[in-house]
């Protein structure tokens, strides 16, 4: 049987909203006359993955977690990331990922005239291995 994996850094329950989203997606597929695909999703079981870095308090970094999850998850529910579930260590990892994604977003489009300035600042910070001087 196929499964739809729900991956989130929050440890809140997600079965009911995931089921509703699945129904909407199946309805969309049926409207597009993609009945075979709709049947696959309709019969798929929702599985909420449990990860050691989940918590009930960090709602600020859900976008960073989501981006990292999308980068690394390949269907194995035993998959592991560098997050530890220890707030201090995970904050260091989140800070590094913020810089990485920030740099990728700012340098991703040719019309961003400030991309070079930001990239130089990110490279400078990465060399220092800290955030001192960010406000220069």
Automatic annotation (TrEMBL):
Which InterPro entries does the protein's record reference?
Papain-like_cys_pep_sf (IPR038765)
Which SUPFAM superfamilies does this entry report, sorted A to Z? Cysteine proteinases (SSF54001)
Top-level taxon: Eukaryota
Q: What is the recorded name of this protein?
A: OLC1v1001639C1
- Which source organism? Oldenlandia corymbosa var. corymbosa
């Amino acid at each position: 049987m196929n499964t739809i994996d729900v991956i989130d850094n929050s440890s809140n329950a997600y079965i009911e909203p995931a089921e509703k989203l699945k129904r909407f997606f199946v309805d969309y597929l049926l409207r597009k006359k993609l009945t075979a695909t709709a049947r696959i999703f309709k019969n798929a079981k929702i599985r909420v993955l449990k990860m050691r870095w989940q918590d009930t308090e960090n709602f600020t970094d859900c976008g960073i977690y989501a981006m990292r999850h999308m980068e690394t998850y390949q269907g194995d529910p035993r998959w592991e990331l560098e997050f530890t579930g220890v707030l201090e260590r995970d904050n260091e990892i989140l800070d590094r990922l913020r810089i990485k994604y920030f740099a990728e977003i700012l340098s991703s489009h040719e019309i961003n005239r400030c991309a070079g300035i930001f990239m130089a600042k990110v490279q400078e910070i990465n060399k220092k291995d800290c955030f001192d001087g960010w406000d220069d």
